[in-house]
Amino acid sequence: MLNGKIHTIVTDLDGTFLSEHSQISELNHRVFQKALNEGLNIVFATGRRFYSTYRFATEFEGSFPLICNNGQLMRMYPGQERVLQYYLEPDLVYGILNLNQEFQFSFLMHTDRYEEGIDFIVQSRDESLHSIYTGNYNRSVRLGQEFQVGDFDRITVLCFFDESIQNLARFEREIFRVYSNHNIRCVTTTIRGIGPCMEVITLGSSKWSALNVFLNNQGLNSEGVIAFGDEANDLELIESSGFGVAMKNAIPILKERADYCSPYTNKEDGVGRVILELGIISL
Predict the structure, then answer these.
(1) Could you tell me the residue ranges of all domains in the chain?
(2) CA–CA separation, 72 vs 86, rounded Å?
(3) Mean model confidence pLDDT for the chain
(4) pLDDT of 135 above 80
(5) Longest alpha-carbon distance in the chain
(6) pLDDT per residue over 163-206, tens digit each?
(7) pLDDT greater than 80 at residue 88
(8) Pick the CATH number of 90-202 from 3.40.50.10490, 1.10.10.60, 3.60.110.10, 3.30.1240.10
């Protein structure tokens, strides 16, 4: 039982807190609202952009941080103020896209231009991929064929897509061969409805590093954190939190490293049920 030991509940969204239809279930909503009402911190930590993360936050009454783009950006709900941001160097983005001319992977970029109504910079081809990934074309701009360094202001994540993880791994090796002295790292996950995706992000940024900024600002320790996840981008968060929970549908390595493996999937209100069963709150 963890009653009285937890001060912060952190959850990934897709495959973890959200249902298979990308919705917050009634039980998960009741549990998180009760946690907020009782003075616990809740944190959404996701690979999603701020726009779509904020939409889910509006279902709750209270104030809490939203960690977006796998830790590249953190803003508060409801005030939207930035707590931290990491941007890829424009000349680095330009160079990596030039490298991709040999590989010809489909790609898009997350950009921190929420107030301008822009979340993505996309290429002109592969309409179906972009439609599934972005879900909102009116918040995207297209990258021209003759792109310039100046096109890449405030880029948080650079995403490449292919059916083969091995092909993406080969491209990753080439990126690090050419840009070995740059502070970047790559994270490869599988996106539902799309397939393998390799993200280029800033070295040292992660869901966990962003959460640490919040904890330090609040004077809180990591031992009082319970974290939920299902994918590779949740690994550091699960390992470093006081109590890391891997969903039933999580990848094997996450289950191996977690403190607890949930008997429930995201389709079965897994986050809410575990919180109740561990005695963190009661309804």
Answers:
(1) 8-85+205-277, 90-202
(2) 5
(3) 93
(4) no
(5) 59
(6) 999 999 999 999 999 998 889 999 898 887 889 999 999 998 89
(7) yes
(8) 3.30.1240.10
199: nearest Cα among 215, 188, 184, 183: 188
- Confidence bin at 34 (pLDDT 50/70/90): very high
d(CA 282, CA 27): 12
As a whole number of Å, the end-to-end CA separation of the chain is: 16
pLDDT of 209 reads 95
Q: How far apart are CA 175 and CA 177, in angstroms?
A: 5
Residue type, 142: R
How far is residue 107's CA from residue 121's CA, in Å, rounded to a whole number? 9
Sheet holding 260-261, edge to edge: 82-85, 73-77, 64-68, 41-45, 8-11, 225-229, 243-246, 260-261
Any idea which architecture 8-85+205-277 has in CATH? 3-Layer(aba) Sandwich (3.40)
**CA-derived radius of gyration, the chain:** 19
